[in-house]
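Q: what sequence does this backbone want?
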């Protein structure tokens, strides 16, 4: 089973690229969804987080993401520790899901993760594809998608890794330009993924 890693900043077009992979029969593993599910369900993750960050749970004993965010945002060392803990748990769950996909006979799997490279999860992949787009285009997209202000959208875009990071750390780049339609970009993605999956 071929494993393709998909990464890139928010608003660049990863969903369109992933739809192309789904059409080829790939099983999609969304690292963000895995993380949120583990925050809800994993007692070992909750214990690891409370041991390090203290009282970050709500009245029902679940991790309160706002409380956790207040502890780590603005403290780079704490954020790095949080990432170290969560990447370990998310990585284990992704490996379990990959084994399940292979056992089910999936021809390919895609791991969608914004921190694919930094978390070490990219090492599980046969190919890593970076999806990028101009910052202005991404700002407009996330404003429309999430109904947020331009100021907040710009902060989100600025907080993420730049284009150069993805160009340096990915095997392939899918670039979404101002002139692209979703259909044209999707067709290019389909062509690239077909080539990757056809290679021995």
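A:
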């Amino acid at each position: 089973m071929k494993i393709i890693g998909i990464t890139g900043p928010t608003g660049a077009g990863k969903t369109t690229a992933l739809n192309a992979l789904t059409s080829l029969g790939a099983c999609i593993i969304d690292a963000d969804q895995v993380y949120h599910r583990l925050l809800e369900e994993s007692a070992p993750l909750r214990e690891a987080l409370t041991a390090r960050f203290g009282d970050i749970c709500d009245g029902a004993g679940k991790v309160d993401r706002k409380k956790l965010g207040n502890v780590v945002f603005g403290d780079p060392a704490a954020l790095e520790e949080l990432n170290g803990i969560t990447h370990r748990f998310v990585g284990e769950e992704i490996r379990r899901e990959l084994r399940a996909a292979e056992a089910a006979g999936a021809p390919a799997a895609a791991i969608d993760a914004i921190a694919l490279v930094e978390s070490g999860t990219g090492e599980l992949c046969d190919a890593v594809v970076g999806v990028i787009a101009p910052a202005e285009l991404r700002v407009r997209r996330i404003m429309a998608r999430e109904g947020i202000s331009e100021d907040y959208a710009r902060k989100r875009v600025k907080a993420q890794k730049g284009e150069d990071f993805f160009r340096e750390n990915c095997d392939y780049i899918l670039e979404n330009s101002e002139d692209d339609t979703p259909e044209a970009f999707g067709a290019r993605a389909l062509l690239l993924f077909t080539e990757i999956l056809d290679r021995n």
